[in-house]
Design a protein that fits this description.
Blueprint: H1 2-20, E1 25-28, E2 31-41, H2 44-60, E3 64-71, H3 73-86, E4 92-95, H4 99-104, H5 127-131, E5 134-135, E6 138-139, E7 141-143, E8 146-154, H6 155-160, H7 169-179, H8 190-205, H9 220-235, H10 248-251, E9 257-261, H11 265-274, E10 279-281, E11 295-298, E12 301-304, H12 311-323, H13 325-331, H14 341-349, H15 356-367, E13 372-373, H16 381-395, H17 401-418
Parallel strand pairs: 2-3, 2-4, 11-13
Antiparallel strand pairs: 1-2, 4-12, 5-6, 7-12, 8-9, 8-10, 8-11
Helix pairs in contact: 2-13, 8-9, 9-16, 9-17, 12-13, 13-14, 16-17
Length: 420
């Protein structure tokens, strides 16, 4: 009889161990846990506070175990492509806005979060905010914060030359004449230059580079003007070539300005501020105050796997990430000023809404109704590379802007068609 009892107990223990290793349900100290997975990208700072936040979440919800997957951006993007194709993606995911079109153009690629509204408090978001995550009538994702390209100016350097903060493209060219090569009035990465030049030509011509469906609406003349303007900016020392862009030059004042995402304000400007420079958030660069073709988008978004085995638990985690005071305390405005009313209220009450990034957020909020919503196709890396290739052909006198405008437009159209 004792042998039989021992065998039964041993079998039960083995069964418990097998269930605990299944990745779905875990038995720990008499608590039945549902296991879900969560993935995000970022730097070490983001990883550290997110892991700490998840530890707090698990203490608040002892019935939920969270398995974390994280990496820096390029590694995350590559792995995400593989996981989406092989259906091994995480239950809760940080995603890029453009991925909604790539993986869920019909709204079926991710879970409809509206179906989980008993667990995710969507009342913390406006209809306009949630519209960014809607695909074919389904709420596929919720934006964490909004983002736009923002002009940051080293006012200390501009003051040395007796210059006002630039408001127009002409102001940057005029500043370059006064600085005479000693400083660059503005600087930017490859992607920022793509936005900057598309906005300039859009305001000059009244056309956007592409429509919401990714169709190219520029003609050869507009494409040539984009290329010519970039070359003028470089040749007249308004900005360095994007290939030579170096963030360290912002910190030491060699670059008197930078165009970067709102969410990257601290990353690009923080060290310059620590070095004693006064950094100002400039107005968005316009022609006569016309803000057309200056774009806004979600900084990042959260979504839930379309076939999540434990959607309730995934939704509880999603609500924690978006709306909880605990997550707001850990994250603050590292991913941008949160759109969630509850999270933002917590930060305001605890004096956590400050600094250069919050100044940039305030600037965006003041112009929110005038900023255009970016097409999800706009940030296509192949398009940006095609633009820079055309610019370099002209910059190094291997061709002229009209010829390269034609080549560039043909390449844009081919890339656009292949992505639909």
């Amino acid at each position: 009889m004792m042998k039989r009892i021992n065998a039964i107990v041993l079998s039960a223990l083995l069964f418990g161990c097998c269930v605990g290793c299944s990745g779905d349900t875990v038995v720990t100290d008499q608590v039945v846990q549902k296991e879900i997975s969560f993935s995000w990208w970022g730097n070490d700072i983001r990883h550290d506070y997110t892991l700490a936040a998840i530890e707090t979440f698990e203490s608040l919800h002892p019935d939920i175990k969270v398995k974390c997957h994280y990496s820096e951006w390029s590694g995350y993007q590559t792995r995400n492509d593989v996981r989406m194709v092989t259906h091994t993606e995480s239950d809760v995911m940080q995603i890029n806005y453009a991925w909604l079109n790539q993986y869920s153009n019909d709204g079926e690629g991710y879970y409809d979060i509206n179906q989980l509204s008993d667990y995710v408090d969507l009342s913390n978001f406006t209809e306009e905010d949630l519209a960014y995550g809607m695909k074919n009538g389904k709420l596929n994702a919720v934006p964490i914060a909004l983002n736009t390209m923002t002009v940051y100016v080293n006012k200390s350097v501009y003051d040395e030359y007796g210059l006002d903060i630039p408001e127009t493209w002409d102001d940057f060219f005029a500043a370059a004449e006064v600085m005479n090569g000693e400083h660059y009035p503005i600087s930017m990465s490859k992607k920022s230059a793509w936005f900057f030049l598309a906005s300039y030509v859009g305001q000059m011509t009244g056309k956007n580079l592409m429509d919401d469906e990714g169709n190219i609406t520029f003609g050869e003349e507009e494409a040539a003007l984009m290329i010519k303007t970039y070359c003028d900016l470089v040749n007249k020392k308004v900005m360095p070539q994007v290939e030579y862009f170096d963030k360290l030059e912002i910190a030491n004042g060699s670059y008197a300005g930078v165009l970067a995402w709102l969410s990257d304000a601290e990353s690009y400007c923080g060290e310059a501020i620590e070095n004693g420079y006064e950094i100002s958030v400039a107005d968005y660069t316009t022609i006569n105050g016309n803000l057309s073709s200056w774009y806004a988008k979600p900084a990042t978004m959260y979504t839930i796997r379309k076939d999540a085995e434990n959607p309730r638990e995934a939704a509880i985690l999603l609500d924690y990430l978006l709306n909880s005071p605990e997550m707001a305390s850990y994250q603050q405005i590292e991913k941008g000023t949160p759109l969630s009313i509850a999270a933002r209220q917590y930060l305001e009450e605890n004096d956590m809404l400050n600094g250069i990034q919050y100044e940039a957020f305030t600037k965006m909020s003041e112009s929110k109704d005038k900023l255009e919503v970016i097409s999800p196709y706009f940030e296509n890396d192949a398009m940006i590379d095609a633009f820079m290739d055309a610019c370099n052909e002209v910059l190094f006198s291997k061709s002229d802007e009209m010829e390269q405008g034609k080549v560039f437009l043909e390449n844009l159209t081919l890339i656009s068609d292949s992505n639909k």
